[in-house]
Amino acid sequence: MQSITAIAHLRSAILYFMDLSEQCGYSVKSQMQLFRSLKPLFANKLIFIVINKIDILRRDQLDAETAAELDELISSTGVETLELSCNTTEGVQEAKNHVSDRLLAHRVSEKVNAGTNSSGVIGSRLADVMARIHVAQPMEVRESFIPEAALGKKKYNKDDPNRPTLSRDLEEANGGAGVFNVDLKADYLLANPEWKYDRIPELLDGKNVYDYVDPDIEAKLQALEEEEEKLDAEGYYDSDEEIDDVETAEIRRKADQIRTRQALIRNETRMRRIKNRAALPRSSIKKPLSQLEDSLDQLGVDTEELQLRGRSQTVTRGRSTTRSRLGTEDSNAMDIDQTPRERLRSKSRARSQPATNRREDGVVDELTRTMAEKQAKLSQRKMNRNARQGEADRHTTASLARHLFSGKRSLGKASHR
User: Fold this and answer.
1) Distance CA 156, CA 99 (A)
2) What per-residue confidence (pLDDT) applies to 220?
3) 289-299 vs 304-312: helix axis angle to the nearest 10?
4) Nearest to 18 by CA among 33, 6, 4
5) Which segments of 166-322 does DSSP mark as H helices, in order?
6) Torsion (CA) 41, 43, 45, 47 in degrees, nearest 10
7) Are 117 and 123 in contact (CB under 8 A)?
8) Model-wide pTM > 0.70
9) Would you state the pLDDT for residue 224?
10) CATH 3.40.50.300 domain position(s) in the chain
């Protein structure tokens, strides 16, 4: 009932569908009785009775008694009837168009009636609207004109041998799609139809190039080529004179050396470039003395004094096996017998150097070491699962989070303790 009340307040048309075949589960009399009970709710509205499923049973196929009751219902209520079939879509579009046109006309008439008084005079508000509306009407009615050629045009039939030739026929006759090209010049409208396929002139500086072409240009070009071949055969273009002198050759040789050296420098720079480190300034990069000597030798500079100076400033750093202080022991002095303790200390290892390789201790071959490493990884799984750093990790996390279980309990917090 709520939906019916909502429809009653809408500015729309009411379509009441009836099923004369009674496949909906209700008899025709029950459907008519329902319409009579709903009709008073739709006052001042367009109402249509739509007879559906005409593909099963039409209105003229009803029995005499039911047909008489239906006619009496339609005549007494003053509604319009429409017939259609939603299954076969017969009459559906016609019904939609008819209802739309009737609803539009009904709304326009309601607006016009709302702007007129009881005597039929248009009010001021509607008069202002009507004054702004102008419907143009033709001064004379002209009848439609259809040329005789269009009336007598024969309908196209694909099986007719005398049918007009279409572009599709030309396409099939000339290789089909992808091969056939549409002739765009066939529809040119020119004074002389023979001009359709003439070549379009090429213009340069506002002048036709073809007007300045020498008709004997090919003959002249052939004569010129023959003359060139004759001079070449006679050795006219051959010359024993050396074009480059000694100075020019020396300059070119040095230029080649410079280019080769530049290419080598670029390659060395690319090889030295380290992309995963920060770039250091050139002043902070230390270079060996040998690199400086090589560079100066290539430039022709004597590096003997530089070598002596560099070696005099070099201080050897290392660890003596006898633990003697720097400068207190003569290298040419006689060896002195040492005590067993001193000999043991002199042969002792650095603290950072292990006594043996722990990775190979207790392992006889490579297969045994591989199995031992695999077993170590398996034993580490449990610690990894418990988030342990190693066998010595005994850390125990707090079982109760302090920020949740400490402090004063306020109202509504007792359930969390």
Assistant:
1) 38
2) 92
3) 170
4) 33
5) 167-173, 217-234, 246-272, 289-299, 304-312
6) 60
7) yes
8) no
9) 93
10) 1-116
Which residue has better confidence, 334 or 399?
Answer: 399
Q: Which residue has the tokens 């989070």?
A: 401
Please provide residue 51's backbone torsions phi and psi, each rounded to the nearest 5 degrees. Answer: -90, 115
Question: Which residues have a Cβ under 8 Å from the Cβ of 363 and sit 6 or more positions away?
Answer: 369, 372
Cα–Cα distance measured from residue 404 to residue 406, given in angstroms and rounded to the nearest whole number: 6
- Take residue 125 and report the two structure tokens written for it: 């508000």
CATH class of 1-116: alpha beta
DSSP 21: T
The number of C-alpha atoms within 13 Å of 12 and in the hemisphere containing its C-beta is 10
Beta bridge partners of 90: 85
CA 33 to CA 312: how far, in whole Å? 129
State the pLDDT at residue 343.
63
Asked if 81 contacts 49 with a C-beta cutoff of 8 angstroms, the reply is yes
- CA dist 62 to 48, 58, 68, 166, 310, Å? 20, 7, 9, 54, 128
What are residue 116's DSSP bridge partners? 122
Which contiguous run of DSSP H or E holds residue 17?
strand 14-19
